[in-house]
Amino acid sequence: MVSKHMVSKLNASLAQLPRADGVLDDPATRAVLDAVRRIVRVLRESSRAAERSVGLGAAQLFVLQRLAGSPALSLNELAHRTLTHQSSVSVVVSKLVRSGLVARTRDSTDGRRVEIVLTSAGRALLARAPAAAQDRLIGALGLLGGAARKDLARRLGHLVEAMALPPQHPPMFFEAAPRPKSKPGGKRSRARVVS
After folding, report:
1. Full domain range(s) for residue 15
2. Cα–Cα dist 39/192, whole Å
3. Is 51 exposed, middle or buried (0-12, 13-18, 19+ CB in 10 A)?
4. pLDDT of 28-38, one tens digit each?
């Protein structure tokens, strides 16, 4: 949980940005922001293109494409293949089930295991769908090599920590964060969900 002290400290440092270590005058600051903007832009444009061409957002298309590579996957296996948390991919799968593009079935050999499979409608949609932008991002991370990826992950982790972002699992790209669950008695949690 993010403490009020951390948020206050961050807000105090933001108020003093013009004087803080010359961060606004450092070309590296702009380079970082430009890189983040370019990545977010291509992901957003890809999501909009998918919505225009097949009526799905980037996260839903990404999940469908991951399912296309195997006959059936459990939710945990699908989370692994999409590089997201199980709770995040579950939200997307539920939307795809409602749309009739995937189905939840019981494994024939282990009745406790629920599998997610593409429906014929899901396969037909994939046949005319564009590539998911997340694949471009994952491919580029692969080109960096293991050591550079590990260093980037560490540095981004420091950035997230310095921004005092909440520690919850983020939703998939351009998916809304799930609403907080109601507490017993019908009252909603007052915790604010930030995506």
Report:
1. 4-162
2. 26
3. middle
4. 999 999 999 99
